Amino acid sequence: MAYINKQWKRFLAVTCTHAKHIDPTAWQAVLTFKERFKPNITLHLGDAIDMTGLMAHGQGSGSKGDDLSPDIDTGLMHLRELKPQIFLLGNHEDRAYKLAMSKNEATAYGANKACEHIEKTCQKIRCQMIPYTGIEQIKDVADIGFTHGTIYNEMAARDMAVKYCNGSRRKIVFGHTHKVAVASAPTKHGGTGYNIGTLTAKSSLEYAKNRPSTFAWTQAFCWGYYNEELKQSSVHVTQRNYDEIWHLPL
Asked: What's the number of domains the chain is made of?
């Protein structure tokens, strides 16, 4: 009874929307859920922009890669629609920041413009932008750590839990691999890793279409409740197979 007046708040997290590669039906489901759920905090965990035009040190994906401006514009449009309070850059956005000092003037110019647009959009929607610092990137909310992710193996959820859950941080929520998974850390502190998938259309990403692991990609988003005073939370992942309709929790 002592905890009855403790305040529980709501969160929503998405990741790996990849600009034009987003599945419109999945995106509308997320926006509909947000309108109903009314989260206190919304987070985008990175790769809102695909940036294939800056792959391979600016040479693009395969023979060329997507045009940079439409890719950036579409990804930032999704941020404006979602209106997150937190945007943790992913490894795809990080391509622009890596190449901002490129010795190739055209590449450096395009990369700097990309960075400028990302930062201006975040300022306009009053969103905190957290750079992609790899293993150091983290945003803690109650007992949940949010990050884009750095591990890309089949046991990423377990391995992320091992590396990030430390007793006070009991959960780690991330994306990066596009595969939904929940796994516990086999450590003294325990903890749980939540891999929250992607919102891209199936087989849309050209550079991944021949990878057997792409079969495991799953559309999903993460939501739940958290209590900052108690340092507790409840985390849920809503997902669908590509041939299913969305059944929203609310």
From this structure: 1
